[in-house]
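#struct-help
A.M.: can someone run this one for me? Single chain, 95 residues.
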Amino acid sequence: MKRKHIAVILTVLFAITIFFAHIFTVCEADHDCHGGDCPVCQLIQVAENFFKGMTAAEIIAVFAAAVFVAAVVSAVLSKNFIFQTLVTLKIKLSD
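D.P.: on it. Structure tokens below:
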């Protein structure tokens, strides 16, 4: 059970990392460059190299997995959603 939790956490962290890397790249595309040793340019280059290694389908799959995992985790944490059955609510269907 602990491995599943670790896998979920790593998937969510990976998706968040990809999301914020995209936001950073878009927001800082028109920054004031200070020359060859510009740290912003270096970070944009690292992000671009990372994204070049991934296809669009892989990025979409990671985001979809993160959304699915978040939905499942929130459903499990709110026990009312999953564990409400007719038996647990003590409802008898005898008409």
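A.M.: thanks! The mean pLDDT is 76.
D.P.: also worth noting: Residues 9 and 69 are 9 Å apart (CA to CA).
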